[in-house]
Amino acid sequence: MRQSVPAHCYQHTFAVVIFPLKKLLSSGCRQCGRSPCRQRLKLCIYRAAKWRVFSSVETAQTASEAAAPSKKQATGGKAAKGTAQKGRGQKASTTSKEEDIRALRLDKAQELRSTGREPYAYRFARTHMAAELQRRFQDLAPGEMAGMQGEEVAVAGRVMARRVMGKLAFVRLEDDSGSVQLYVDRATLDAAQPGGFSELKALVDVGDIVGVHGGVKRTDKGELSVVASQLRVLTKSLRPLPDKWHGLEDIEKRYRQRYVDMIVTDGVRDALRARACMTSAARRLLEDRGFLEVETPVLEATAGGADARPFVTFHNALQQPFVLRIATELHLKRMVVGGFERVFEIGRVFRNEGTSSRHNPEFTSIELYQAYADYADMMALTEDLVRACALKVAGTLQLIYQGLPLDLEPPFRRASMHALVQEATGVDFEAFGDDVAAAAAAAADALRSAGAAPRAVAAAAGARSVGTALNACFEEVVEPRLQQPTFVLDHPAEISPLAKPHRSRPGLVERFELFVAGRELANAYSELTDPVEQRRRLEAQVAEYRAGVAEAAERSSLPAAGALPGGVHSGELQIAVRNSDEDAYEVVLDEDFLMALEYGMPPTGGMGLGLDRLAMLLTDAASIRDVIAFPLMKRL
To answer: Which residue intervals make up region (Disordered) (predicted)?
Structure first.
């Protein structure tokens, strides 16, 4: 007949597995003092297995949660293991295990409180970071104890691994600077903190944040260690960390639980630190050149400065709608009008558009304006910014991005948009003059031959100007080929309403875009300062946009198949119409900006650079989400 055991003994009987000896050692219940017996240990093992607390994750992290079962009990055999990895059962099982572990850890937190030790401390007087210790004692020989004349160090951080071997325990402690080992000898710890070693075994888990005092030694195997004389739980972790060998394998979960990703995934914090260094380098360079950092509104009455769908919100007190800014441009130009000749802003910008490995609905840009300068000056400044950021983060201008060698050494290649498109497609759009229909048809044929998506073909065929047809070909055919840093110059006026007309090429403007690794990195103009011309262009842009939306609505009913005039197939046009309806949003003139220009803005060069994409290049990140601390995710 089974022996009756109090319920608390299941939680307070604990065991340590010593892997080399294949032995199971047990101590008695710390609540009632019952001596260990084989029958009670069997009952504890049975109930622990029944509660499913012996997940592979928690067992690898701590052996003090409960008695360890045999391999078959832990895994349920090969057949059970295979079944657990399939379907919803695995997710439900994982959730169950985590909740059981959480309940056990809550009990441990309560036990700490019951003995007068608060599991969530107010502060800890740390004397050294892990990296500082590694530097200070780098010459300490194996087996040698540091002579510190009775002085002790105090370190704090998260427990990332722990091994208990009889009267010794080894703990890997990680802080913001790196990691250091804790060498915990039972006699040393118990002498200064009675019961401290038992507390370590029973109440300290992987994931906990602890503070430790002690001397410094290097073990015989060469590991720098803090010899613990005092150990205190500063924060009790209630949830287990992912398995140390596999980490967070679910990419979606990595971004949703970014805080866990930062703890367990190598390189995540390094990428975010590199981004911060990059931003600091850009700010320092501009300030050294006399630029003033300013802040402009995020909430605006009208969206301007870019062609993008805004996020719309409502101000209750003012009883009117507002939008989140889609660019910082127009307010920065107002500051130039107001007399600030060199200004910049590093700020968040919001665009209600799709997400991809290169796009996030909220992103960070650095936008700057310099009076009495033009787009040639902006090219030189852009090269200097990229160079300074690369040297700060990577220490070199020769980078490898996703296997592609990149040379960021100035000067960058310069080529006009017309020349690049003609080189890639064989079509000379300058030869069309004002023949929009011929240019649109040629663009559609070129894209179709290049295997472009039907939406892109339809957009090119429906182009309302030669410039938009040219740009359609550029975006689809040329842009992906621009791997090495390239300034694309002299865009059509139709797609650049805020830039000055080109001094020598009618129909074009003084504008450049910087492309690296097939993506746009920066955009700059010789800024348009003529208020009359600026009004004309913006009014034309608004009219063209509204006409396009109306035309898309009229074409909502199309033949099921067949070709339409201009060589466009009805399927392609249906796709274009459907997307036009989805993308439609209100566009209005910013009358206040036009009024500001009428007070007079000096000749000005302006440039905007995407910091997220630059960070991707400098940290070799495949996705923009990897360089954003908390990327936007769809709510579950």
So the answer is: 62-99
